[in-house]
Specification:
This protein is mostly beta strands. It has a domain of about 80 residues: Jelly Rolls. It is about 0% helix and about 55% strand. It contains no helices and nine strands. The strands form two sheets. Strands 1-2-9-4-7 form a five-stranded antiparallel sheet, with no helix packed on it. A four-stranded antiparallel sheet has the order 3-8-5-6, with no helix packed on it. A hairpin with a 2-residue loop joins β1 and β2. The radius of gyration is 14 Å and the shape is globular.
């Protein structure tokens, strides 16, 4: 793992909530780790913010750290609360909405290249 300002240093315990500062009326994000196999990003959403519908070529896991998020995955609404994890399958459209302030961890899992 690269050791730059966008990733975490090794061998150190850090509180997830302290790794991101929410942005008023916006979305903040920080890449915590990035490799050829995927990446881990922490997000903070203010109330009323979200990510519009899109697809990704690989599976992703959403772990809700604080608050709750409404996800729409392949047209199916899923409400996830703090402590919940949701898998978003590859090539399936998805969107995320925060009705109240929320923090989440996004883990993207890329397939190894042949």
């Amino acid at each position: 793992m690269a050791n730059d300002s966008s990733t975490l240093s090794g061998a150190e315990a850090l509180a997830l909530a302290s790794l991101i500062t929410p942005t008023e009326k916006g979305i903040a994000s920080r890449v915590l780790a990035k490799t050829g196999g995927g990446n881990v990003t922490i997000f903070a959403f203010d109330a009323g913010q979200g990510l519009s519908e899109h697809t990704a070529p690989f599976d992703a896991l959403v772990l809700i750290l604080e608050g709750s998020m409404k996800l729409t995955i392949g047209g199916k609404p899923v409400v996830a609360n703090a402590g919940d994890i949701v898998r978003m399958p590859a090539h399936v459209s998805h969107a995320l909405d925060a009705e109240a302030p929320a923090k989440m961890l996004l883990v993207m899992l890329r397939e190894p290249k042949a």
